[in-house]
Amino acid sequence: MTLTRPELETVYALSRSDIAHFAQHGFVKLKNVLSAETIAEYEAEITDKVIELNTQEQPLDERDTYGKAFLQVTNLWQDSERVLEFVSSPRLARIAAQLLGVQSVRLYHDQALYKESGGGVTPWHADQYYWPFATDRCVTIWIPLQETPMEMGPLSFAAGSHTFEHGRDLPISDESERVLQDALAEQNFPEISEPYELGEVSYHLGWTFHHAPPNSTDIPRRVMTVIYVDAAMEISPPANANQVLDLASWMPGNQPGETISSPLNPVLY
């Protein structure tokens, strides 16, 4: 037990306006969710695991758009007791349950998203394109592990776009960036693009469209994410090849029509 661990178990006071903002816009940014001390306590381990487990060996300039966007390492919690502590935080999971308006949430999976120095744009997309879920009660927390100014590539959201069904069939790609940039502008969804303070996090629904600018600084943009899902979520028949892969990878043994319940999806709150 570390000195900073208790913070991960304490209650964060979510306001009514935070919950209303999330419902209306499909995302919310929350300040002071984690202290600098807590982030420092876990950042080194998360970064070590990203370096150890990363399988991307191509030079940046030889990768496709997706590959240039970030280094992506998933389910770090399975490789580290320390990361498990962080990912299973009741404080963070309780916020997710409150925002979703559900009694209980499970872990879907975690993802470290490290945008290298010189890393490119993360194209417009909605995460739930990849997830075989029957409802929209799933949410990602985006936790920068350093202060994140605009030039480092913080997440930008199309406010209210969780209600927009056009483009939900697009994976992260040059096409999704091009098509959605135009479609979201046509629909007048405001793009909310702001830096993140240290300790500030965001939560966004699976169908909220978002993207991120390049990292033009000389240090990596280190971000940890956790995806939470309604504990009563029913699995839907996969709608694309990526969802087939996700079902096999993150819900082993579960089948469409069942409630998510695999050993990789423990209840966190």
UniProtKB/TrEMBL annotation:
Classification via InterPro entries: Phytyl_CoA_dOase-like (IPR008775)
Swiss-Prot/TrEMBL keywords: Dioxygenase, Oxidoreductase
Signal peptide: none
GO molecular function, one term: 2-oxoglutarate-dependent dioxygenase activity
SUPFAM superfamilies: Clavaminate synthase-like
Pfam families referenced in this protein's UniProt entry, alphabetically: PhyH
Domain of life: Bacteria
Protein name: Phytanoyl-CoA dioxygenase
